[in-house]
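SAMPLE LOG
Freezer: B-3
Tube label: C17
Construct: single chain, 104 aa
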Amino acid sequence: MSSRRRHHVEGPQLDQTRGDLRSLRIAERALGASAPEAEPRPEPAGPRRGRPPLDDKHYRKIALMYLNAMRAEPGRPILWMADKLKQAPSTVSGWVGGARRRGS
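STRUCTURE (predicted):
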């Protein structure tokens, strides 16, 4: 027969735990209130690592092409674009999503 035992804290140990939690909450509020406003970070001086980001012009071109693809192949616009651009459908789908997020 197995029995479950609950961990029970009493007396001074409980008071210490309550005090620790209260101090933690006060510290969190103080840090949140005194945090300086986020200042824009300066651009790094050297070249950035990785692939350069795609610009608005690229996403505008993708958005316009998507509109044309909807007319040409309404059921499969991404596949139509992938064929025209010689890219993987997943890549084109990501570009279309990026254009939608930017509102191009």
